[in-house]
Amino acid sequence: MSMFLDTAKIKVKAGNGGDGMVAFRREKYVPNGGPWGGDGGRGGNVIFVVDEGLRTLMDFRYNRHFKAQAGEKGMTKGMHGRGAEDLIVHVPQGTTVRDAETGKILTDLIENGQKFVVAHGGRGGRGNIRFATPKNPAPEISENGEPGQERELQLELKILADVGLVGFPSVGKSTLLSVITSAKPKIGAYHFTTIVPNLGMVRTQSGESFAVADLPGLIEGASQGVGLGTQFLRHIERTRVILHVIDMSASEGRDPYEDYLAINKELESYNLRLMERPQIIVANKMDMPESAENLKVFKEKLAANYDEFDELPQIFPISSLTKQGLSTLLDATAELLDKTPEFLLYDESEMEEEAYYGFDEDAPVFEISRDDDAAWVLSGDKLEKLFTMTNFDREEAVMKFARQLRGMGVDEALRARGAKDGDLVRIGKFEFEFVD
Fold first, then answer.
1. Which residues does 297 contact at the CB level (< 8 Å), separation at least 6?
2. Which residues contact 289 (CB under 8 A, 6 or more apart)?
3. Where residue 182 falls among pLDDT bands split at 50, 70, 90?
4. d(Cα 180, Cα 198) in Å, to the nearest integer?
5. How far from 255 is each of 74, 118, 222, 244, 314, CA to CA, in Å?
6. Can you tell me the distance from the alpha carbon of 361 to that of 180, in angstroms, rounded to the nearest whole number?
7. N or C, fewer C-beta in 10 Å, the chain?
8. What is the side-by-side strand order in the sheet with 46-50?
């Protein structure tokens, strides 16, 4: 089994806030002690932190659920519960975090040590000390803690490399990487030797350095999922320069120019913006007998299909085996990198506008539906949050919840829908009778 994993779907659950407490001060020499219940503590957040030591999402293959701790409950003597510690989850550089339900991108984590809160912990519920008023100096009301945010996330790793090697299988990409860097990818004379991206650092003779990624070989239809498909194409997206490696010896029986067109077509089909990246054509295997003639024909076909005002891509004849022409290629690549800016991976329409966990002000406060047993069902984020934070063990808290429902217009809405005295009303698993 490959130890490289570049996609994962996980569930995260932030900690619930601690419940507030109902307590009263009773001391010998304090005749009017009053309420003394403290607030609950804040629930823990779930935070992603970039760790440059990680190279894969393998840690998420078997551990797919991450749950932060709940806050401590409020205590007597007005003492607040302790807030829970945040749950820190380490991810590799280049991880894109997407909300699995909406498809919106939450964040793109590319810098070592970068942090992002993917799920916010709930606030602690208020103790009865918070509800004291001149009219009600000894309230028996407290709140349960706010539920922590829960969401399903899609993680996608796009490796950080300045330069990407693309081309058909067996054109010599892995061999090229092995001779220009210290990377040691497996190399063999058969298709798809490279089944995971390999990364290496290059240092030119002039002292420039950059990261190079050797990506699994492309075949026609890869952008539609044929072969290894889009499993590797995502890794090209972060590169600023593409080295298009072509087997100029045509040892596989393919035409080098047709290979060049086919690979560019796959890049364009996958993501139009990939064609914005500058390309250098690497004419490999020039030590083979037919290569020089094939290169001449390739240049003629390339020039014939370019407008006279268009700038032809640079072509560098090399041989990875004999190391011919490598220094010239690397110097040209470093020079092109210096003048090529970073490419924006995502536009604003793909990003989630507001990452903080909250409620949509434009969304309806509640919704009414009818169950199979003719019971009325109340739902809605705000209403369900009020329900969850109500302590139904205290009669005062229940009455307060009933007043809140009335203030939200639930009674009137049920009446307008035809609810009669004694009808069953349900919120989640909680049921009560409608009183007209």
1. 257
2. 249
3. confident
4. 13
5. 75, 49, 19, 15, 19
6. 56
7. N
8. 87-91, 46-50, 115-119
